[in-house]
Amino acid sequence: MSAGSVRVYADYECDFSEDVDVVVVGSGPAGAVTAKELTDAGLRVALIEEGPPFTPQDFEIDGAISMARTMREGGLRMTQGTVMPTMQGIALGGGSLVNSAICNKAPDFVLDDWCEKFDLENTTLADLDPHYDAVGEFLGIAPTPEKVQGRRNLLFKQGCDALGYSSEPVLRNVKGCRGSGECFTGCRTRAKQSMDVSYVPAAIRRGALVLTSARVESILNDGSKATGVAGRVVAPFTGRASHRFRINARAVVLAAGCMATPVLLEKSGKLANRSGQVGENLQFHPGVAIMGVFPEDVHPAFGATQGYQSKNFLRDGYKLETLWAPPSVLAVRLPGSGMAFKNRLADFARSAIWDAIATCNRSLGRVRTRSRSMTPSLVWRLHPEDVRILTRALWTLSEIFFAAGAKSVVSGVNGIPDEFFSLDEARMLTEHPLRDRDLVLGGNHAFCTTRMHGNPARGVVDEYGRCHDLRNLYITDTGIFPQCPSVNPMWTAMALAHRSAAHISAEL
Amino acid sequence: MVLWLIVCALAAWLLIRIGFGYPPLAHGYQVLRRNEVALLASVSEAMFPPGGHIPSSGLDANLPDYIDRWMSVSSKQTRVLMHLLYFLIEHATVIFPAPGRAGRRRFSALDLDQRVAVLQGWGESSLYLRRLVFVSLRSILTMGYFAHPPVLRQLGVAPFAIESPICEADLLYPRIGARSTDIAYTADDLTTVRDDAPLLPGSPLHPDFSEEQS
Ligand SMILES: Cc1cc2nc3c(=O)[nH]c(=O)nc-3n(C[C@H](O)[C@H](O)[C@H](O)COP(=O)(O)OP(=O)(O)OC[C@H]3O[C@@H](n4cnc5c(N)ncnc54)[C@H](O)[C@@H]3O)c2cc1C
Ligand code: SF4
């Protein structure tokens, strides 16, 4: 097969159309894996991405400016109901360009639960393992080496060891990490194997046509099957629309992310929604973070962005991680104003920030389509029982901080003191009645809006990502998860996409 | 007639409150207006006052310039929300006055102590929406404060100097805005031996954040 090609915004000069075997919408982890695997199977593939490709010269180190360029709604997208920021990438590579490269397989008990509750027959860990491994090998997924952990990550291990909690170096899709802690604004060392430097080039090598700055606006269909997609070329950052395009295909794969895919289906004449589940069941892993202040320097700027984790409490509903991001983004979580706030920022050099993500299957929402825009409106509510999981997680993180030698912890939680100087004081986190709006939340892992279900009346796709209603329309993004996976979702999304691609190529 | 007079007086008062008495701009701004520059400077001074453990103040960090740049690359919707936020903070003193003399003046006209107290009132309010407004404002300012290289150096969290290697992707994608035909690299340029030495504390800083640059 001859090499494919990439088109960027400045390359488009007029309206155009293409004919391919499969068109894949979205180049995040799910879309990029699908596209590469389909080209490997000898199919002609077009991969369409609304965002531009970023070179290291295009990265902005500044947190806000970077977010304005790489994320939807400038990184300021929020849920209504329980107000929570949620970030989605808009770039070649999707979320992988800005994520921390954490790779976790979904635990066997979670996948067993999915199979049982959602009538799935072939989605146990044993079923998915070959797909996880194929992706893992391609991306070089491996534990974060000690030499780039930095003190911020190793203190976490120290605290966990002291308490007898299990912990481990994070597995990441990274080759030659230098510990710059900059995964959030783009990896300048090119160590992170985000999709734009891994799966997408591999797909191009095998013949894929990659159209960037191209926004799909409708899925073409003849009532019984999908026939392609149509859309507009859009300028990077402003989104200004220009030339029209149309891609005719024998099969269509939607991997636009769990917030954009339901909008696309809805805008295409409420496609694939006989079950009524498109856009429903929105779930997150809401996250909370806490800062520990140590007596001596931690040098938090050095070290893998998120190098250590603990799965000790997965069955209790939460997973613990170390965290770094641009200080401006992290500081949003701190309490106070004026001199007190300024002096708190001065503690940064002696601080570490750790976070917890929670399994919140009871906390549900939905993606709503706006009439004149492709930007979704999100409604989601954190269930009171899930608030308890999060406050429990904050307490556990405090425990680990004090065990690691912290002199205080700062939670940013409203309604309780800003800073705790002992574990005894921190007990308030679990004893004081707290509500969702008292917590500083963030939810960058989102799922379930086009969930898989064995029963066509209760889900949008089957376990291979094929829509129940239109047999040549597939979805592979995290929207197909039937429930949250309890751990960082990217590797599971890629494993499922890897499996779907095999299924699609067999069908074609 | 009396009603008419009251309406006129109210309108005049509103006009004066909203539009008059702001200092002229020192230079041109892409997005911010004169009143917003004055407001942001006054909020930044109250949020990051001079003194304390970090030598740089909000005024040193020149936050209006940063915020103008940020807003100029943000979406229209985000910009509208930001303008509304500034308006709200500037004039909400009518409803939530500052303590002390003439506390209902616009925010940017208040004394420093009063401004600090007003911000604290927003941040510690029992009304969730007021706290939300405060967090949004503080986030915007904090983004700017941390974009000021001396602040990052003072905190020991300035970014490191990194030379990006040339990889396969650099042969495929040009810089944003350029055409594919502008890609200057060929296979001969690919970096063969990568520098994977950890960027330990003390490693050279990114040129934009180093001491010499400032
Ligand atoms: C800051 C951050 C850190 C994270 N860290 C981790 C981590 O360390 N580990 C982990 O497992 N997960 C992490 N996640 C989550 C993870 O990145 C996402 O779950 C993952 O990227 C989802 O993959 P996806 O392919 O489903 O969707 P996305 O990655 O969102 O990709 C969808 C793509 O489709 C494009 N698109 C959307 N609409 C259209 C359209 N109409 N036409 C054309 N293109 C379109 C988008 O621009 C986007 O590029 C993080 C997320 C964020 C934001
Ligand atoms: S920590 Fe730095 S070097 Fe390592 S993968 Fe992330 S951005 Fe790249």
Structure description:
The complex is a heterodimer of chains A (508) and B (214). By secondary structure, chain A is of the alpha/beta class. Chain A is 26% helix and 21% strand. Chain A has two domains: 5-101 and 104-140 and 190-282 and 447-507, FAD/NAD(P)-binding domain; 143-172 and 287-359 and 383-438, 2-Layer Sandwich (Cholesterol Oxidase, domain 2), CATH 3.30.410. Chain A has helices spanning 29-40, 63-70, 108-117, 125-139, 150-163, 199-205, 260-267, 327-331, 338-345, 384-403, 423-426, 428-431, 490-507; strands at 5-7, 16-25, 45-48, 78-81, 84-85, 141-143, 168-169, 171-173, 209-211, 214-221, 226-234, 241-254, 283-284, 287-293, 308-310, 318-323, 351-358, 365-368, 377-380, 408-410, 419-420, 446-447, 473-475. In chain A, helix 4 (125-139) crosses helix 13. The mean pLDDT of chain A is 96. Chain B is mainly α. Chain B has a domain at 23-147. The radius of gyration of chain B is 23 Å and the shape is elongated. At the A-B interface, strand 1, helix 2, helix 6, helix 8 and helix 9 of A face helix 5, helix 6 and helix 7 of B. Bound molecules: flavin-adenine dinucleotide and iron/sulfur cluster. Residues 101, 174, 177-183, 187, 189, 191-192, 304-305 of chain A line the site of iron/sulfur cluster (SF4).
Give a quick precis of the structure.
Chain A has 508 residues and is α/β, with parallel strands linked by helices.
Layout of helices and strands:
The complex is a heterodimer of chains A (508) and B (214).
Chain A: E1 5-7, E2 16-25, H1 29-40, E3 45-48, H2 63-70, E4 78-81, E5 84-85, H3 108-117, H4 125-139, E6 141-143, H5 150-163, E7 168-169, E8 171-173, H6 199-205, E9 209-211, E10 214-221, E11 226-234, E12 241-254, H7 260-267, E13 283-284, E14 287-293, E15 308-310, E16 318-323, H8 327-331, H9 338-345, E17 351-358, E18 365-368, E19 377-380, H10 384-403, E20 408-410, E21 419-420, H11 423-426, H12 428-431, E22 446-447, E23 473-475, H13 490-507
Parallel strand pairs in A: 1-9, 2-3, 2-12, 3-9, 4-19, 12-23
Antiparallel strand pairs in A: 4-5, 6-8, 7-15, 10-11, 11-12, 13-22, 14-17, 14-20, 15-16, 16-17, 18-19, 20-21
Helix pairs in contact in A: 1-6, 1-13, 4-13, 5-10
Chain B: H1 2-19, H2 34-47, H3 63-72, H4 76-91, H5 112-123, H6 128-145, H7 149-155
